[in-house]
Input
Amino acid sequence: MGKPRQFTTLSAAQAAALFADPAWAGKYPPLLTVVQAAELLQVPKQTVYAWSSQGLLDGCKARAGKHLRLFRDRLLQTLSEGKLYGGQ
Output
């Protein structure tokens, strides 16, 4: 077995500060599509849908009609807490 992953939890301010650069803020706005979220996290979009179905994104997502949207900063905080990759 490999070593367990180590995660550093981001605060809301730290997550928001990652997008202070206008180029990053333009590419990854505060409310992301599934495609944008997948690109940001470097996973297939099917993984984002699977995490949503498993309830792992409950604090990070919203529906716009039938479309899934993700709150960028909450998503990064959830990732940093290790909740998406079996950390906790």
Notes: Strands lie at 31-32, 61-64, 67-71. Residues 45-53 form the longest helix (9 residues). The chain has a mean pLDDT of 87.
